[in-house]
Design brief:
alpha/beta, Leucine-rich repeat, LRR (right-handed beta-alpha superhelix)
Length: about 120
């Protein structure tokens, strides 16, 4: 069996959640949980779900969007970060990933220095 979709919305999941490696997973929904630290979480997602194409993460403290008190600029920075680290994404938080977002996310990171993650200000 090859799992392609996993919906874990509204489960109060936190940073310590562990996932099995599922190369066949294409869609992951983790909306409205309690994930607070984006860097280690993205590393975990990238490793466990290397072929992820659809990812929804709204209403988590680590998702800096207007629904959680963040600014539009903070949300766009979050999108760039996720897009850069989950390279196969087609949709993030129900919005299509654009070519211009891919270019902008690539420009924000110096891959030669392995600078794959950057921090948001503390909430």
């Amino acid at each position: 069996m090859k799992l392609e979709t996993l919906v874990l919305d509204n489960n109060d999941l936190g940073d310590k959640i562990k996932f099995p490696t599922l190369p066949s997973l294409k869609t992951l929904c983790l909306n409205n949980n309690n994930i607070q630290e984006i860097n280690s979480f993205l590393a975990k997602i990238a490793t466990c779900f290397p072929n992820l194409e659809y990812f929804s993460f709204l209403k988590n403290p680590a998702c800096y969007n207007p629904l959680m008190g963040g600014s539009e600029e903070d949300y766009q920075k979050y999108r760039y970060k996720v897009i850069h680290n989950l390279r196969r994404l087609k949709f993030l938080d129900s919005t299509q990933v654009t070519a211009s977002e891919r270019r902008a996310s690539a420009e924000l990171y110096d891959v030669s220095k392995d600078n794959l993650f950057w921090d948001f200000p503390a909430a």
